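Entry 14. Ran structure prediction on the chain below.
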Amino acid sequence: MASNHPAPEVLDWLTANGWTPGRDIGEHAEKLVEVRVRDAERQGVALLPSPVAVRVIHAYGLLRFPHPKADESWVMKPTVGYEGDAALIAELAAGLGTSLFPVGYEESERGLILVDKSGRWFHLHHTGGYFMGDDEYDAFSRFLSGAEAQDAEDYFV
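Output, structure tokens:
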């Protein structure tokens, strides 16, 4: 469920890991976006960042968010990927009927964290695509609670 504010436990976790309200990595975010766009072009795919994805990178870029009880972390670095990932992102986006742009990755298995133009979060894992949340606060809350991710196909148009 989308929210304009993080739940207290999410806010505590975010701030414990370096985030502050109003955080903005400025021009560094723009450079990260540019690197990712160019890499997708090199792979023959156009990945266009939505304003929401760019805002997420500005706010959370380069932070590492470890799960407090599991050996799992989200790293908010959109430039990490693998050969052929742009085509897989585009394929998932087509199924969802929207654009997707990477904002980070899941550290243990290098699954990509993606944001669509409405702000929803998805995970592109080697086993498929998964819905992570309606916005960053929902995704962070689900991550912390250990909620099972939903199959992204449930959101296909």
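Strands lie at 64-66, 73-75, 100-106, 111-116, 121-125, 128-133, 150-151. Will compare against last week's run tomorrow.
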